[in-house]
Write a structure and sequence with these properties.
The complex is a heterodimer of chains A (about 260) and B (about 350). Chain A has about 260 residues and is an alpha/beta fold. Chain A is about 30% helix and about 20% strand. Chain A is built from eight helices and ten strands. In chain A, strand 1 and strand 2 form a beta hairpin. In chain A, helix 1 packs across helix 2 and helix 3 crosses helix 6. The N terminus of chain A is likely disordered. Chain B starts with 7 loop residues before the first strand and ends in a 23-residue tail after the last helix. In chain B, the strands form two sheets. Chain B has a five-stranded mixed sheet, sandwiched between helices. In chain B, strands 8-7-6-9-10 form a five-stranded mixed sheet, with helices on both faces. In chain B, a hairpin with a 3-residue loop joins strand 7 and strand 8. Classes of the chains: A alpha/beta (about 260), B alpha/beta (about 350). Chains A and B meet through helix 1 and helix 2 of A and helix 2, helix 3, helix 6 and helix 8 of B. The complex binds zinc ion. The site of zinc ion (ZN) has 6 residues of chain B, from helix 4. Chain B: Belongs to the KAE1 / TsaD family.
Chain lengths: ~260, ~350
């Protein structure tokens, strides 16, 4: 059992987190048992999120010897990211959670990338403030500013790479794509999110929560986080809803075009 | 399987703007719940794919919940999940396919990715019982206009013809705009046409006598616009009712003519009409007249089953289960241009 007994104020005694992210070219899934990432699968293929995710989830369950119904929380990256792929992860999280009666949470994908920079042994461990940037297409990046690996200070936002705040190291695929614009010496940390980092981040947060707090978080709207205190207070878990940052492209039509000259 | 030996199939449809979730037991309809994002598209004069995809993601879980409540079932009662794998809007299809895979995986039940057009045919079984084999199907909507020969809806569907340009429903939308009527145009033109004469203007019938079973509505749409512009330029009044009725007559004349040509050519005595345009009142009347004259039986599901919905997907899923077809794997893609010859993926 994931939720520790009955009654109010009880803490989660045991977490088994299934996490995945489809907000970037990487399709990544992982299972975390509260202490460690037990299994992880990552494939980079920007065009096949819909095909790769469900088999990846089956793979990590098989590799970890965990039955889906024993999972205590499902966590999906909420982006920002190109929408078509992003929705695959969030739709999967919502539907899967319903079938097993577990809560589904969302975590900002940029937070998961940031979190990976603070894990010892990870490539590109960073000390001090930095930016995370991912590909937003149309010559723009999705980005956020961090005080450290677990503290988002600004963002997520979408901007042109030359409008990013100067000087700080930049983590993620957006940094690599626009290395010439931002300066190659600023490129740091991992390129893509890993579901292992996403799961670890969520598991750490979930372990400290009461059942009531967890339930409330799953419905928390994604607001602007503008201070270290607020970031710490809110944590990183939210509802599994997409962060789009752009309106759909659509024009309200004028009068019908004439067919006669 | 639950309670009876007939499987309970959950059907998911997201090929366009409707988030449709249907539940059937065999071919008994238990629920047909739809969330539409049409209101969000109306001001754009057409379905905006990204708006539709966003709405599907929001609406899916509540719509599934609503369908289960309507059917008096729990998710764990579901024996199989069917989903539209194509054709349709790529991003919209992907939301439904992702949901269906997750429901199937989470419940540990088989998944069936199905063809949207075949589902439009299969849905009639929910209302009129088993399909005659073979049947001719005329599918007309904002997204498709097809004539099909259906020897067996679970296994074998043959395309006889389709539109070479605009879908029939698309022509209704475009002509509605020319006449200053709202989107989607079909119901407004149907209503306006009741006050007008179908013979007031002799609009062209594309591909009427070309010997094929294909359609063309682009020329008709342009002819209507040209006619209206010419009257306006001359300062003459335009009777919206007469133009609507004459345009509608041209469309349904061609549709029913080709459908009955198909019946004659393949010696089939059953015609089925489906898709959103099947709700058009003049199409129903003229199709019945021409079927009666030709000794062909006509089947048209009620309007709620003609427009895109989840029950049609569930109905086809039930055929696939009954036929012992292998379930789809969890890595099936959403295929925006899935050919009709591929009934299931
Ligand atoms: Zn349709």
């Amino acid at each position: 059992m994931g939720w520790g007994g009955a009654g109010e104020g009880l803490r989660l005694t045991f977490v088994l987190v299934l996490a995945f992210d489809t907000a970037t070219p990487a399709v990544t899934a992982a299972l975390h048992d509260g202490d460690y990432v037990v299994a992880e699968s990552t494939t980079v293929d920007a065009r096949r999120h819909g095909e790769l995710l469900a088999p990846a989830i089956e793979q990590v369950l098989r590799d970890s010897g965990v039955r889906l119904r024993d999972v205590t929380a499902i966590v999906a990256g909420t982006g920002p990211g190109p929408y078509t792929g992003l929705r695959v992860g969030l739709m999967t999280a919502t539907a899967l959670a319903t079938t097993i009666g577990a809560p589904a949470f969302g975590v900002c994908t940029l937070d998961a990338i940031a979190y990976a920079t603070g894990q010892t042994g990870q490539t590109g461990e960073i000390d001090g403030p930095f930016l995370v940037a991912t590909d937003a297409r149309r010559k723009e990046v999705f980005w956020a500013r961090y005080g450290d690996a677990v503290t988002r200070l600004d963002g997520p936002r979408v901007d042109r790479p030359d409008d990013l705040p100067p000087d700080l190291p930049v983590v993620g695929a957006g940094a690599r794509m626009y290395a010439e614009t931002i300066g190659a010496d600023r490129v740091a940390g991992p390129e893509h999110p890993s579901a292992g980092a996403l799961a670890a981040l969520a598991a750490g947060r979930l372990a400290g929560l009461t059942v009531e707090e967890a339930a409330e978080l799953a419905e928390m709207p994604d607001g602007r986080i503008d201070s270290v205190e607020k970031a710490r207070e809110l944590g990183v878990l939210g509802p599994p809803r997409p962060i789009y940052l752009r309106r759909p492209d659509a024009q309200i039509p004028g009068a019908p075009k004439r067919v006669t000259a | 399987m639950s309670r009876t030996d007939e499987p309970i199939v959950l059907g998911i449809e997201t090929s366009c703007d409707e988030t449709g979730v249907g539940i059937v037991r065999g071919h008994t309809l238990l629920a047909n719940t739809i969330a539409s994002s049409m209101d969000e598209h109306a001001r754009f004069g057409g379905v905006v794919p990204e708006v539709a995809s966003r709405a599907h993601l929001e609406a899916m879980a509540p719509t599934v919940e609503g369908a289960l409540a309507a059917a008096g079932l729990r998710l764990s009662d579901v024996d199989a999940v069917a989903v539209t794998a194509g054709p349709g809007l790529a991003g919209a299809l992907l939301v439904g396919v992702a949901a269906a895979k997750a429901y199937a995986m989470g419940l540990g039940v088989p998944l069936y990715g199905v063809n949207h057009l075949a589902a439009h045919v299969a849905v009639d079984q929910l209302e009129h019982g088993p399909l005659p084999k073979p049947a001719i199907a005329l599918l007309v909507s904002g997204g498709h206009s097809s004539l099909l020969l259906v020897p067996d809806v679970a296994q074998d569907v043959v395309s006889l013809g389709s539109t070479v340009d605009d879908a029939a429903g698309e022509a209704f939308d475009k002509v509605a705009r020319v006449l200053g009527l709202p989107f989607p145009g079909g119901p407004y033109i149907d209503r306006a046409a009741r006050e007008g004469s179908g013979t007031a203007v002799a609009f062209p019938r594309g591909k009427y006598d070309d010997g094929t079973l294909d359609f063309s509505f682009s020329g008709l749409k342009t002819a209507v616009a040209r006619w209206v512009e010419a009257r306006e330029a001359a300062g003459e009044p335009v009777s919206v009712a007469d133009v609507a009725a004459s345009f509608q007559e041209a469309v349904v004349d061609v549709l029913t003519r080709k459908a009955l040509q198909a019946c004659a050519r393949y010696d089939v005595k059953d015609l089925l009409i489906g898709g959103g345009v099947a709700a058009n009142s003049r199409l129903r009347v003229l199709a019945q007249e021409r079927c009666d004259a030709a000794g062909v039986r006509l089947r048209v599901p009620r309007p709620g089953l003609c427009t895109d919905n989840g029950a049609m997907v569930a109905a086809l899923g039930a055929n696939l289960v009954a036929a012992g077809v292998d379930p789809s794997s969890l890595d099936i893609p959403a295929d925006s241009s899935l050919p009709i010859t591929t009934v299931h993926v």
